[in-house]
Amino acid sequence: MDRSLDSIDWHILAELQRDGRLSYNRLARRVNLSAPAVAERVRRLEESGVITGYGARVDATKAGLPLTAFVQLRCALGSCLLKNTTAEEFPEVTEVHKLSGDSCSMLRVRVASMPHLEGLLERLGRHGEMNSHIVLSTQYEGRAVERPADETRPVTGSSGWSR
Amino acid sequence: MDRSLDSIDWHILAELQRDGRLSYNRLARRVNLSAPAVAERVRRLEESGVITGYGARVDATKAGLPLTAFVQLRCALGSCLLKNTTAEEFPEVTEVHKLSGDSCSMLRVRVASMPHLEGLLERLGRHGEMNSHIVLSTQYEGRAVERPADETRPVTGSSGWSR
DNA sequence: GTTGAAACACTGTTCGT
DNA sequence: ACGAACAGTGTTTCAAC
After folding, report:
1. Are residues A85 and A37 in the same domain?
2. Same domain, yes or no, for B26 and B81?
3. Which structural domain, as residue segments, surrounds residue A18?
4. Number of residue pairs across A and B with CB atoms under 8 Å?
5. Where is this region: Disordered (chains A, B) (predicted)?
6. Which residue stretches of chain B are H helix?
7. Which of A55, A64, A96 sits opposite B148 (nearest CB)?
8. Do residues A85 and A129 share a domain?
């Protein structure tokens, strides 16, 4: 059941990520399969959890939330954000990642205005040392999950440390 | 045409972000409107660019790309990543943001394995000073674009600096 | 995995309020 | 301008090969 994806699966994933409303008919034509066959593959991708759902893509800026920032948080002892708050308290926080390295987490936030960001950072700052980075512009985003190139990419060896 | 979104629009956006395959019939029922009325609103949201499309959500880990990292890049003069490379050369890079502050850009990357990441960072490192943060786990992600709370959030004043 | 058929559901339009 | 019904079309899903 955890068998890897073949190239037709990747083709299906690419098409569905580009247009999640494709019918099995059209999708089947694009991947050169019949509708029932493609329906069965999609069903398997959904049940195995590779496809988690379908959603509309919304332009946050056009919707009135033009500001994005990344916030690195180094949690203070006993006031870790993850253990002391909920997602509902911080609707501006769109992502929370635990990190290796000197900050324990990386937050992504989205706000309507600079005062809004200022207030948010003040509320976040109570939970530890903060390092915020305002996004001036987003050059590239929303790339589809693609099949990784299976070519082995050799890393330059450090001759002085190899034996 | 750039008129702001009312609460029904936000309700529609919430439903469509949760399930992009909702028919106008079901959607209309959920927002207490008729199908033609809701179809017209969705059409406007699409044409005004608030809704940019519909797509399948794919679990990158389940698809064989379990590693994510953030990379802050401080471009070296004359070898800025954005001006000297293309998206095709770096399929692992899923986002590129220009930043304020000491690093000129924040990259988000997604790879299949640690050697894969190592090779990628070596290739990226040629374009400037790098600061990478490996994501250990993602606690929260994919939050829908929501209506911002319009309550003004007053920021604590700094009494010593106000007049 | 493919083809064909039948039932179903959806969309877009038209009309009435 | 909104809501309701109708007709046409496209889709899904089953069967058999």
Report:
1. no
2. no
3. 7-47
4. 237
5. 142-163
6. 7-18, 24-30, 35-47, 81-84, 114-125
7. A64
8. yes
Which residues contact residue A134 at a Cβ distance below 8 angstroms, ignoring those fewer than 6 apart?
A67, A68, A69, A117, B99, B100, B101
Distance from CA of B101 to the nearest CA of A (A): 7
CB proximity A156 to B under 8 Å: yes
In a domain, B153, yes or no: no
B122 and B83 housed in the same domain: yes
Taking only the tens place, the pLDDT of each residue in A101-159 is: 888 999 999 999 999 999 999 999 999 999 999 999 999 999 999 999 876 666 787 78
Indicate the number of domains in chain A: 2
H helices then E strands: how many in chain A? Answer: 5, 5
Contact between chains at A5 and B50 (C-beta distance less than 8 A): no
Whether B34 CB is under 7 Å from strand C: no
Whether the Cβ atoms of residue B66 and residue B60 lie closer than 8 Å to each other: yes
Neighboring chain B residues of A63 at a CB cutoff of 8 Å: 5, 13, 50, 145
Q: What is the pLDDT of residues B23-43, one digit of tens each?
A: 999 999 999 999 999 999 999
- Which residues from the 36-95 window of protein chain A have CB within 7 angstroms of nucleic acid chain D? 36, 39
B17 close to A (CB below 8 A): yes
Ramachandran category for residue B128: left, alpha or beta (phi over 0 → left; psi -120 to 50 → alpha): left
Determine the pLDDT at residue B103: 83
A139–B53 CB contact, under 8 Å: no
- Does residue A31 belong to any structural domain of this protein? yes
